[in-house]
Amino acid sequence: MAIRGTDDQRFIRSAAGMEAFARTVREGDRVSPRTVGGMDFEEIRREHGVVVFQQGEELFSPYGYAWSPQGDPAPILEDVEWSEDHVDHYFEHLEGAFYSWQGRR
Q: What pTM does this model have?
């Protein structure tokens, strides 16, 4: 299992709750600040079957996790516009259907 980042233990403890929550998010939904599985997220959204859990923004680049049961979310979200500013999405597989996520403007 390749878990990375400073919140490794928090993610490991939260993953089951995040997956259960992800299964309830409908396509196109945006959920504003919410605690899921013990972790705080600024926004949770579902686009093309991928649920992105945005933890915050650093230097205008959003970051967090993605749940993508259909595999690598990068090609799935390639043409999705998240805001008026274009965001490039970068993913790294963590475990199961989970990926770390960073958006860069």
A: 0.85
**Amino acid letter, 3:** I
Q: Do residues 47 and 74 lie in contact, with contact meaning Cβ atoms separated by under 8 Å?
A: no
Contacts of 6 (CB under 8 A, 6+ apart): none
- The values of phi and psi at residue 17, to 5°, are -65, -35
Give me the amino acid identity at 84.
E
10-37 burial, b at 16+ Cβ within 10 Å, e below that, comes to: ebeebbeebbebbeebeeeeebeeeebb
Of 70, 7, 18, 69, nearest to 44 (Cα)? 18
Q: Which two tokens stand for residue 13?
A: 């403890």
For the stretch 18-40, pLDDT in tens is 999 999 999 999 999 999 999 99
Q: What is the pLDDT of residue 104?
A: 78
